[in-house]
Design a protein that fits this description.
The structure is a homodimer. Chain A is of the alpha+beta class. Chain A has two domains: about 70 residues, Arc Repressor Mutant, subunit A; about 160 residues, GAF domain (Beta-Lactamase). In chain A, helix 2 packs across helix 3. Chain B binds a DNA duplex through helix 3. Chains A, B: This is IclR family transcriptional regulator. Chains A, B: InterPro entries: GAF-like_dom_sf, HTH_MetabolicPath_Reg, Tscrpt_reg_IclR_C, Tscrpt_reg_IclR_N, WH-like_DNA-bd_sf, WH_DNA-bd_sf. Chains A, B: Keywords: DNA-binding, Transcription, Transcription regulation. Chains A, B: GO terms for molecular function: DNA binding; DNA-binding transcription factor activity.
DNA sequence: CAGATAAATTCACATATATGTACATCTTCC
DNA sequence: GGAAGATGTACATATATGTGAATTTATCTG
């Protein structure tokens, strides 16, 4: 069950992150199609907790820097080592595609760092974006780091859906693809989850964290050169990863 | 009316900001005394939206960097000019007390930047902290920047409460104190709102934003030297504020 | 400076929602 | 290796909560 008002808080914050200017109660209510009275309650709650204020009289609400302060506290624990951002930054520059660092979240994989392609037609992904762990290159690069038992436990929770023609729709199909990936030396996906999207990924264990790097873009651009891209990812990791670490 | 689940989202985030490590459903439920099933729904919602993930198997949930990315977007609009942080940083260093930048939020004043005193006994305030606009030095330094009509409009919404012996409990009392502040050249408060707390503040208009700076600490330390402190604030503002700006 | 219009706020009630209970799954310790 | 305990998940139901309508407050317009 989705908790509506919890989701609404996130929606409001995303709204401000996009619009980047103060908004009045009426504007927010209209934007979301929420009743004014409900919007009033929500804004009052956020204000009362010190997360929203009125920068200038009658110009509406805007988030206080408290969000930033809180997010900093949270993220300064185990931040990703700086070379991982360099990694996806270099990969994106060299391939012209979107490159990301991905982490597990149950049956999903979450993007925890992203450098977007500059191309007009590109894979649009943001930090926090989630994809099924079994039906994506990045996700399978995570699964490769699991033990058989851990994978089985994940499989039991997966609802196998036919997202596209090549989506693996059984445990056996996923396991087979994993074996192929090992043989091949990297994970790949051609529209397994998102139409027209192709990607190459490899596991990226950091300390005891299981992450992966992925480069993804439109099938017609990536398709012919998945192998090259995968090799580039591997080389770039080799170059940037400090020799001491695992 | 307070929106419970909206507040809960904030509570969870604050919880993580404090504990700074992943937490399981059970831990979170126990910490807040929430039923497991409700906690489950909340965590599921936050996860689904890409704000929570499971860094490692069975080790529980932790916020994704999405919070940080969003907070950055939001806060990079009209950030406070760097000299304002320098300002409170210098003030805190020189006085040994807590110094803050404060903005209006209806009948309240919000702390939007804070440098805490290093002293063991100190004014403990964080970004996002809110205080009544009429019963604090910092708040009154904001009111001084309002027109008479704007002040009247604020007064109508204030619930006058006797927070301490010196709290102004009528419009007239507030207006008198404002007149005294003008004559004196700065705003002050001696336990008007928080027991044993004293502070000195002056208005700090930046562009069309109405802000104020305040230095606050225990009455016994600040009391004897409010004048000095206020003068120091004024001098420091003069020194740091770029000459061009208002 | 009215009178009109739009925005913000309040409140009582129907309903969407949080939770108690039951079940499944995983972990631990003997 | 197996049983007890802890943790995570599903669902029906009573109740806390969101909302439509009414009221108050602010803002525009001629």
């Amino acid at each position: 069950m989705i908790v509506r008002q919890a989701a609404n808080v996130l929606e409001i914050m995303e709204f401000f992150a996009q619009s980047r200017k103060p908004a009045t109660l009426a504007e927010i209510a209209d934007h979301f199609g929420w009743p004014r009275s409900s919007t009033f309650n929500l804004l009052a709650t956020l204000s009362e907790k010190g997360y929203l204020y009125e920068p200038r009289p009658r110009a509406g609400f805007y988030p206080t820097p408290r969000w930033l302060a809180m997010a900093r506290m949270i993220s300064e624990v185990e931040p990703l080592p700086p070379w991982t951002h360099q990694l996806i930054s270099d990969l994106s520059a060299e391939t012209g595609e979107t490159a990301s660092i991905v982490a597990p979240a149950g049956v999903m994989a979450v993007f925890i760092d992203v450098v977007e392609s500059a191309a007009a037609i590109r894979y649009f992904a943001t930090i926090g974006h989630r994809v099924p762990i079994h039906a994506t290159a990045s996700g399978r690069a995570l699964l490769l780091q699991y033990s058989q038992e851990e994978r089985d436990s994940v499989y039991r929770k997966i609802e196998f859906k036919q997202y596209g023609p090549s989506t693996p729709i059984s445990i056996e199909a996923v396991e087979t693809e994993l074996r192929n990936s090992i043989a091949r030396g990297y994970c790949q996906s051609f529209g397994d989850y998102s139409r027209d999207l192709a990607g190459a990924a490899i596991p990226l264990p950091i300390g005891d964290r299981r992450l992966s790097v992925v480069v993804a873009g439109p099938e017609f651009r990536i398709g012919p050169k998945v192998g090259e891209v995968a090799a580039l990812i591997a080389r770039t990791v080799d170059r940037l990863r400090p020799k001491a670490s695992a």
